[in-house]
Q: What sequence folds into this?
C-alpha cells in the first residue's frame, strides 16, 4: 500500500521477479493467462516517474515504460521482468507480443539497429541479440536472466518450428527445430524435439532421415514412447513389416512396464522449456498410445501380412483387455487407431477362420449378430430431401442428426450381415453345406440388404451401402458355390446371375456362372460368357468400385474364399469345346 519511490523500485521489481518465478515454477498451469502482477509493477514504475497508464493494454504499457523510463537503476530489473513477461506470452502462444517486447528492449539498448538478417526469424534474432543486464550483487535472483534467455531461445525456436510444421513449411520447420535441439532444455524436451524432427522429415518424404531423428529421441529419453510409435509408422510406410512389428512389440512391452505419468525432466530451474511449449500440434505428435491400441495394431498388421497365428494371439490379448474394463482400456479420442468394436470382433472372426478355428469364429460372429440386431430399425428410411439445398446441411441440426442415425443403422446392418457371411463360409469349410446355405440366406442376403438397396441414399452414406453390396455379392457367391456342391445347379446359376447384377465385372461371380452353365450342359452359353469375361480387364478385388476405397479388413478373407478355385480346368474345358466346335463347323 506504500506509494512507489524510485530508490526502492529496483528492490521491489526484483522481489516481484523472484516471487513470480516461484509461482510459475510451482506448476505450469500458473503460466496460462495474463499476469496482473507484472502489470501492477509497471504501473508503479510509471507512477514513480509521474506518469500513468491505467487505460493501456499490457503491450502498450511496456512500450510506454521502456520509452519513457530512463533511470539507469531501473534498466536491469525492467529487462528481467520483460524476460519473464516474454515467457508468459510464449506459454500463451503469443509469439508476436513477445517479438514486439524484445524489439522494444533491443531498441532501448541500441536504437535503430536491425537485428533480423534475411531468412532469419525475428524473434530468435532479437533474443540472441538481447544483452542481459548485469545482476546487482545486492539483489540476487533465484533464476538468472541469462539462464532465462537461453530457455526463451530454445522455447522460441521450438514454438516457431511447430508453427512452420503445422503450416507445411517443412524446410523452415526443420531448421528451427534443429536450432531448438541445440538449445537449453531437459532430456525429456530434447527427445520431444527430435520426435518432431522425425515427423517433419517423414512429411518431407525422407523416411530414413526421420528414423535417424526418432532413434535419437529414444537414445536421449527411452521413455519417449511417442517416438517409438512414429518409428513403427515410418517402417509401415516403407513396407518393412518385420521392423514395424518389432517396434510395435517393443512399444507394447514398454507400455506394460512404464507408468503413464512417468517423466524425465530436470527439476533444477523454476522455469523450464516444457512449461512454455503447449500447442495442439505438439500434443498430437506426442500423443501417447494406449496398450489396447498397440495390441490392436499388432493384430491388424499381422492379419494383413498373413501371419495368422500371431494375429489370433494379439487379437485375443486385445479382447482380454476389453474384458478388464471397456472404458479404462479403450481410448475414445479422435486420434485413436481403433475401429468400432464390432469391426474388431469381425476381424477376430476372420483371423480365427484363417487359423482353422471355425467353431470359434462362428461363436464370435454370433456375438456380433446378437449385439447389433436390436440396433437395426425394422424399417430403414433415408429421405432424399435431406440432400436438398434448402434444408439444413449434413452434420448440423436435424438433417445432420438424422443422417448420423441412418449411418449408424447402416453400419449395424453391415456388421450383422458380415457376421452371417463369416458364419456361412465357416460352415462351408467344415463341410456343412446346408448350414452354410442357411447362414448365407439369412437377413444379410434377403430382406435387410434389399431394403438398403432400394432406398434413395444421400451421397454421404454411399460408403456404407457399398460395403453392404460387397457383402451381398460375397454371400451370393458363397451360397451359389454350396448349391453347386449339392448338385443344385439351377439355384446356383440364379445366385451367380444376381451377383453379376451387383458387380458386373466381378471375376469370381463370372467364373462360377460359366461353371454353372457348363454343369447344366448349356455349353454354348458357357463358352460365350467365358469369351466375354476373359476379354474384360480384371476387377479390383481389394478396392471399392469407382472410389478406390479399400474394403474393410474383416472382408478380405471372404474375398479370398470367394475366388473361383478351378479356373485352369474350366478354361481347358471351354477351349477344348471351342476347338471341337470350330472343327465341326469347318468340316
A:
Amino acid at each position: 500500500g506504500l506509494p512507489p519511490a524510485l530508490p526502492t523500485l529496483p528492490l521491489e521489481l526484483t522481489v516481484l521477479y523472484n516471487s513470480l518465478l516461484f509461482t510459475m515454477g510451482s506448476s505450469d498451469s500458473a503460466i496460462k493467462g495474463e499476469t496482473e502482477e507484472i502489470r501492477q509493477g509497471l504501473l508503479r514504475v510509471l507512477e514513480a516517474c509521474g506518469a500513468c497508464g491505467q487505460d493501456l493494454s499490457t503491450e502498450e504499457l511496456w512500450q510506454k515504460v521502456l520509452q519513457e523510463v530512463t533511470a539507469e537503476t531501473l534498466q536491469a530489473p525492467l529487462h528481467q521482468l520483460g524476460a519473464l513477461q516474454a515467457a508468459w506470452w510464449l506459454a500463451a502462444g503469443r509469439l508476436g507480443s513477445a517479438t514486439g517486447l524484445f524489439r522494444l528492449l533491443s531498441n532501448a539498448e541500441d536504437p535503430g539497429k536491425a537485428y533480423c538478417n534475411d531468412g532469419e526469424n525475428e524473434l530468435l534474432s532479437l533474443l540472441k541479440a538481447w544483452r542481459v543486464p548485469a545482476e546487482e550483487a545486492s539483489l540476487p535472483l533465484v533464476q538468472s536472466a541469462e539462464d532465462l534467455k537461453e530457455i526463451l531461445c530454445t522455447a522460441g525456436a521450438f514454438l516457431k518450428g511447430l508453427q512452420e510444421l503445422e503450416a507445411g513449411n517443412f524446410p523452415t520447420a526443420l531448421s528451427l527445430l534443429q536450432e531448438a535441439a541445440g538449445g537449453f532444455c531437459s532430456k525429456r524436451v530434447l527427445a520431444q524435439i527430435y520426435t518432431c524432427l522425425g515427423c517433419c522429415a517423414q512429411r518431407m518424404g525422407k523416411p530414413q532421415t526421420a528414423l535417424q531423428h526418432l532413434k535419437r529421441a529414444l537414445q536421449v529419453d527411452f521413455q519417449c514412447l511417442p517416438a517409438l510409435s512414429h518409428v513403427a509408422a515410418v517402417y509401415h510406410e516403407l513396407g518393412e513389416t518385420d521392423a514395424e512389428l518389432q517396434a510395435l512389440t517393443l512399444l507394447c512391452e514398454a507400455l506394460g512396464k512404464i507408468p503413464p505419468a512417468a517423466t524425465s525432466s530436470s527439476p533444477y530451474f523454476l522455469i523450464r522449456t516444457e512449461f512454455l511449449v503447449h500447442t495442439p500440434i505438439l500434443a498430437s505428435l506426442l500423443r501417447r498410445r494406449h496398450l489396447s491400441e498397440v495390441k490392436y495394431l499388432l493384430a491388424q498388421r499381422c492379419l494383413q501380412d498373413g501371419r495368422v497365428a500371431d494375429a489370433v494371439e494379439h487379437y485375443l490379448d486385445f479382447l482380454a483387455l476389453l474384458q478388464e474394463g471397456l472404458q479404462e482400456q479403450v481410448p475414445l479420442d479422435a486420434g485413436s487407431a481403433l475401429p468400432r468394436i464390432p469391426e474388431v470382433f469381425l476381424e477376430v472372426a476372420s483371423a480365427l477362420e484363417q487359423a482353422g478355428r471355425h467353431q470359434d469364429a462362428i461363436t464370435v460372429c454370433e456375438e456380433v449378430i446378437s449385439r447389433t440386431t436390436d440396433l437395426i430399425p425394422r424399417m430403414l428410411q433415408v429421405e432424399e430431401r435431406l440432400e436438398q439445398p434448402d434444408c439444413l446441411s449434413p452434420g448440423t441440426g436435424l438433417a445432420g442428426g438424422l443422417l448420423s442415425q441412418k449411418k449408424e443403422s447402416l453400419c449395424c446392418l453391415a456388421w450383422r450381415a458380415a457376421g452371417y457371411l463369416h458364419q456361412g463360409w465357416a460352415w462351408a469349410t467344415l463341410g456343412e453345406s446346408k448350414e452354410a446355405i442357411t447362414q448365407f440366406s439369412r437377413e444379410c442376403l434377403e430382406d435387410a440388404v434389399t431394403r438398403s438397396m432400394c432406398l434413395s441414399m444421400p451421397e454421404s452414406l454411399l460408403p456404407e451401402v457399398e460395403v453392404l453390396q460387397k457383402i451381398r455379392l460375397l454371400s451370393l457367391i458363397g451360397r451359389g458355390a454350396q448349391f453347386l456342391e449339392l448338385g443344385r445347379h439351377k439355384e446356383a446359376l440364379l445366385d451367380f446371375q444376381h451377383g453379376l447384377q451387383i458387380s458386373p465385372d466381378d471375376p469370381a461371380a463370372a467364373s462360377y456362372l460359366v461353371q454353372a452353365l457348363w454343369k447344366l450342359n448349356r455349353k454354348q452359353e458357357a463358352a460365350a460368357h467365358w469369351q466375354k469375361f476373359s476379354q474384360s480387364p480384371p476387377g479390383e478385388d481389394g478396392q471399392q468400385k469407382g472410389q478406390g476405397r479399400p474394403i474393410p479388413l474383416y472382408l478380405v478373407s471372404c474375398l479370398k474364399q470367394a475366388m473361383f478355385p478351378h479356373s485352369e480346368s474350366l478354361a481347358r474345358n471351354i477351349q477344348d469345346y471351342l476347338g471341337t466346335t470350330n472343327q465341326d463347323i469347318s468340316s
Remarks:
- The CA atoms of residues 321 and 327 lie 10 Å apart.
- The domain at 143-258+270-289 is CATH 1.25.40.10 (Serine Threonine Protein Phosphatase 5, Tetratricopeptide repeat).
- The chain has 28 helices and two strands.
- The beta strands are 543-544, 549-550.
